[in-house]
Request: fold
Amino acid sequence: MDTTLIIEAAYFVAALLFIYGLKRMASPVTARSGILVAGWGMVLAVAVAFLYGLDVNEKAQPHVWVNLTLVVIALGIGVGWAWYSGKKVAMTDMPQMVALYNGMGGGAAAAIAAIELFSGNAQSHGIVVTILAVLGGLIGAVALSGSLIAWAKLDGRINKTVRLPGQQAINAALFFLALATGAAITTAGLAGEVSITLVAVFFVISLVLGVMLTNPIGGADMPVVISLYNAFTGLAVAFEGFVLQNPAMIIAGTVVGSAGTLLTLMMAKAMNRPVSNVIFSQFGETDDGGDSEIEGSMKAAEASDAAIAMYYANKVIIVPGYGLAVAQAQHKLYEFVKLLQKQGVDVRFAIHPVAGRMPGHMNVLLAEAGVPYDIIFDLEDINEDFAQADVAIVLGANDVVNPAARTKKSSPIYGMPILNVDMAQTAYVVKRGQGKGYSGVENELFYADNTSMVYGDAQKVMAQMIEAVKSLG
Amino acid sequence: MDATTTITGFVALYIFMLAAFTGYEIIGRVPAILHTPLMSGSNFIHGIVVVGAMWALLNASTPLEQVIGFFGVLLGAGNAAGGYVVTERMLQMFKSSDKRADKTTSTDKE
Reply:
């Protein structure tokens, strides 16, 4: 039986389905079918991978039934747990779940590398394969431990950001130590020797490196980090694909590696932070812009005032931020928006690229509440319109509407694209308290003459607004 | 023992280059609203690593290899299944304006 041919053909189809599925995911109209297409690709690939059992190497021959059982158990546990946790997780917690699943992929790539390096096949597989196995193992292990730290941070399990003195020197030293160990493994392997200790040390160093790289990075930068590790895992999978001569892994891994890299760069650009800044964690080390210079004072307003102002407005733009999602107020917000729409108010949503915890996260959260995507606009598409808006209302967002990004050179957020809420005729800001944003910078918008602050939990404020509008008839 | 296709040298580089451009092109045209689902979707796709882990586990001949292989398959399966569920849940929620859009302008769908 020529199982190899079947496997190869199936992988070809799977790779095709992955690329076609990703392509369909790139448009809101076809996105849903895209993941289904890619999903079938995965089912097909996993199904034919069982055929490997018919053609194992000689040494593994006596163990094949045990191994087959182990495969089934591992698949069962992995799929079962992930399926359950994925179904259960709240939409606001999505970023950390992605981080977790990504870390698992990195771990799987590292496991393949470990087996290759333990197997003693380096001589027959040659130097290129061995080097790729080492590099894939390093990247995979970094993605594993780094993603776990990212997950723990986003999930609130690690709150403090530990920055050791000379952090970058330590990281660089670890990196070179990992490379040196990898080189030693490769040389030994090509000479036909396998040192289990050396391989173990190599993976421990790599895992520690992932922890050390991620630990100093603050929560606000985590989306960029997750995206970066996603690209890392893709690359690790591609490298291990070369080791195993598995074209599906090579293609899928490389596509994800490059797509993930681009996505990372786009995110970093939206936050006006070079990727190197994020990785070397320079946030918060700049002086804060000096809060004393802001003139004027904050004016408080009642929720009902804001609601009535919007009810009688022609154009309203809503700027939702993560605070809204944390308060779980997006359903109430949409209820309120529907009341406004019934009155004939033109309501639109303006989304900053980094609103939420990942680019596009806010769109997902609004979609969850049933907000149709055609009244949701990206920064570039709506920023001009703020000048014509009667009312702009900011819900649980801060840094992304701070005009200091346009004007104040000393500010750490200077140069970041912001939503021009300050240009609207009237602005309302719904906020829990008087605190600063993630960047720790005071927001000039809050002190502007045409801005009023509505203090309170977003959920309660929205309820009050709905009531106020309903009482108007 | 390896699959018969041998991907070496320049063929490997060509595949790498073409796949890299493919990924770049796909993401480059995506509206920001889909970035999160797409990151999650690409996260799902590198779950293909599970088939490599399956090969490694099926060819394991020592307890050490079996243990590592077992965890490899488990982790890879988690990556694939979790990535799928989460992406599917996110994308399921994307709707266009109300139901009327679906009824009256069903021709809009491509």
Observations:
- Chain B has a mean pLDDT of 81.
- The two ends of chain B are 47 Å apart (CA to CA).
- Chain B touches chain A through 91 residues (CB under 8 Å).
- Chain B has two domains: 1-30, 35-97.
